[in-house]
Amino acid sequence: MFDANDRRHMRKAVALAEKGLGLASPNPSVGCVIVQDGKTLGKGLHEYALLDHAEVRALKDASGGSTGATVYVTLEPCSHYGRTPPCADRLIESGVRRVVVATPDPNPKVSGQGIARLRSAGIQVDVGLMAEEARRIIEAFACRITTGLPLVVSKVGMSLDGKIATSAGNDHAISSEEGREFGQRLRFGADAILVGVGTVLADDPELTYRGAARKARPLLRVILDTHLQTPENARLFQSAGNAPVLIFCSSEAAANRGAELEKRGAELIAVPVSGEELDLTAVLHALGQRDVLSVLVEGGSLIHWSFLSRRLIDKFYFLVAPIVLGGKDAVPAVGGKGFDVIAEAPRFRICRSFAAGPDLVLETYPAYSRSIISPWLASENVPFDGRDSPRS
Asked: How big, in percent rounded to 5, are the helix, strand and coil portions of the chain?
C-alpha cells in the first residue's frame, strides 16, 4: 500500500507534528504535507493560538494548487465543527486525489468519520503509515479525549539503589546536567506539573519550564497540600502571574487559610480527604475539566506512592544516576507503606531506555496504563487480575 516516497513524505509530516508539540495543546499536535509529482506544494502544523488546523495551513501554503495532489497527515482530518469548519470538507473542496493518514482520530466526535467523508467524496484514503510515531505524538490528547482525565506521567531522579535523597537531605542534585535537561523536556510536553507540599517545604522549587523551545501554554503548577502548609513566601509565587499555581486542599483548610494564599496568586480547590490524603481521582477530574492533557508528577516520595498505590500512573520515567547512596534511612524513590506482598505490586514494562549524559533513562508503562502506546496493549500475557486492568 505504501512505498518509499510515501514514507519519505509522511516522515516530513511527523517532523512537523513533533515541531508543534508545546504549541497545540489542548488540541492534538498534527503535521500535514501536500505533494504532487514528488514536489512538496504545501506544509503545515497546528498551533492552537492560530486556529487553523495543519491541513488548512498546508492548503493555504499550497496557494490553491492542490488539485490532484496527495495529502500526508499524521491524524485523521476532522469532520465536525469546532473552533473551525471540518478539515475533511476543506480537503474535498481543494480537489486532492489521495489522503494518507497515519492514525485515526481517537476523538469520539471524529473517530473514522473524517476518513469516511473523504472516501464518500471519491478520494482515496490510505491509513496506517507511521502509525506508531503518530500515536506517540498524540498520546496525551488521546488519553484526555477518551477518558476525561489527563495522562499521568511520573518522573523520578534516583541513585542506582533507588534513593532520591540521603537521610540528611541532598546538598547536590542526584541527576546530571543532561538528566535535568531531559526533565525540562518532560515539562515542555506537559500541561501541568504536580508535587506534594513536602517537596515545597523541603526544596522551595519554582516548578517552571526553563527549556529553550517555545511553549505556548503556561505550565500549570499543582500542589497537593491537605492542610495548606505552603508558605506565603514560597518561590513558586514569584512567577504566579505567568505560570498559574493551583493548590488542592481540604475544605476546612481552604476556609481557614485560603484567603492568605489567594492573595499570593494561588487558586485553591477543595477536594474530599480520606485520612490525611486528598482524593487523587477528584484532583485528576478537576485537571481534566481544565483541558489539561498531561500532568507530570515529580514527587516527592510519598506522592509517587500515593499515585502508584492507587494505580493512577500511566507512564513512569526513572532517571538512574550512576551513584549509590546506601543507608536504611535514605529516602526511596517511592515511599509510603509499600505493598505487603509481591503479588500486589503493579507490573511495568520498559518501553525504551537511553542515556542522558551519564544517567540512564527508563521509560516504563504499568499494565493498567490508559496510554494508546502502552507496550502492554500488544501483549497476550497482560497480568490482568482486576487491579491491573486498563483504567477507563
From this structure: 30, 25, 45
